[in-house]
Amino acid sequence: MSRRVSLTQYLVEQQRAHGHIPAQLRLLLEVVARACKGIAISVNKGALGGVLGSAGSENVQGEVQKKLDIIANEVLIEANEWGGALAAMASEEMDSIYVVPNRYPQGEYLLLFDPLDGSSNIDVNVSIGTIFSVLKKPEGHAGVSVDDFLQPGSAQAAAGYCIYGPQTTLVLTVGDGVAMFTLDRETGSFVLTQDDVRIPEDTKEFAINMSNMRHWAPPVKRYIDECLAGSTGPRGKDFNMRWIASMVADVHRILCRGGVFMYPWDAREPNKPGKLRLMYEANPMGFIVEQAGGAATNGRERILDLKPKQLHERVSVILGSKNEVDRVTAYHAEQG
Ligand code: AHG
Ligand code: MN
Ligand code: MN
User: Fold this and answer.
1) Is residue 119 within 6 Å of ligand 1 at its C-beta?
2) Cβ neighbours, 10 Å, residue 231
3) In terms of domains, do 67 and 148 share one?
4) What does the pLDDT look like over 161-185, one tens digit per residue?
5) Based on the domain organization, do 256 and 179 belong to the same domain?
6) Per-residue confidence band for 82, with pLDDT thresholds at 50, 70 and 90
């Protein structure tokens, strides 16, 4: 029988073999995984747990919050504030940063998260998830401020997501490839089920909200038009489309079998770079996708090179199979 490797074992072995997971980071990742297990339990209870529906409030970005957005945010804060690995946290659902209270030791790391991704799918029993990103607090000053968080995605020490679907799966990178862990509900532990995840470089599958087509910029429209033209068009092959409307689920499919995911800028709000959030969605997913051999850009620049100007910054996102992302990015460059 092949050896079952738990998340704990995987992290300890990574630390021993490669030395790139300091003890504080290992502890932090274990605690995030534990919090995700707690969120998975709430998600699974659904209507029986009274967790469905709207919370009747709005977040700082003007989006209506669901009960589970708030529950997941609280679970992550409560699980992570006392462990000693963190100085502060930032979340899509909080106006500003959450500094670890004085009664707990302050650690070296910063944790950012989208506590519940795919909120529109909560009430209809479709896959949703939690996305997280870990940064190191810059050295040289006491205390912690929003500025400490404004680091490019290339500075991430770790990133991951947990998808609450038919299975609960944790996907993680610490900068040495991507590993997937499936939650064994009987033992309560995450078990390594795929190591060294690789995204095929080519694909015949795209994910985009087609209802926005008339608002897209010409390079995006050109790419999708060519996909739709299929075997009789310039691409010479038929494409398939998928859109789950949970980034976490669309990206998970791409990690499993390739594809390209896009949430581009559109002309309705020209001053808004995109819908998705740079710090809580694009950076962690960009890091994971690159570590799996894929690519992630905003159409013109590599996502991980972008220098954030504000915590809740939004960005246009094109990610997945490398040759397709390169093609869409080249179409943007050709347009000038
Ligand atoms: P969130 O639930 O965290 O606000 O994120 C939802 C995002 C993302 O997960 C998904 O790809 C996209 O919004 C769906 O947007 P549409 O409803 O426009 O399809
Ligand atoms: Mn989200
Ligand atoms: Mn969310």
Assistant:
1) yes
2) 9
3) yes
4) 999 999 999 999 999 999 999 999 9
5) no
6) very high
Residues 170 and 251 in one domain: no
* Residue-averaged pLDDT of the chain: 96
- Residue 15: the pLDDT is 86
The Cα–Cα gap between 80 and 103 comes to: 13
Statement to judge: residues 318 and 217 lie in one domain? yes
Is the CB–ligand 1 distance for residue 72 below 6 Å? no
Tokens matching residue 119: 């909120």
Query: Rounded CA gap, 18 and 54, in Å?
Result: 45
The closest-lying atom of ligand 1 relative to the alpha carbon of residue 280 is 3
Q: Is the CB of 120 under 6 A from ligand 1?
A: yes
Please tell me if the CB atom of residue 126 comes closer than 6 angstroms to any atom of ligand 1: no
- Name the 3-class secondary structure at 274: coil
Q: Calculate how far, in angstroms, residue 251's C-alpha sits from the geometric centre of ligand 1.
A: 12
| CB of 114 shorter than 6 A to ligand 1 | yes
Residues 132 and 16 in one domain: yes
Index of the ligand 1 atom closest to the CA of residue 63: 4
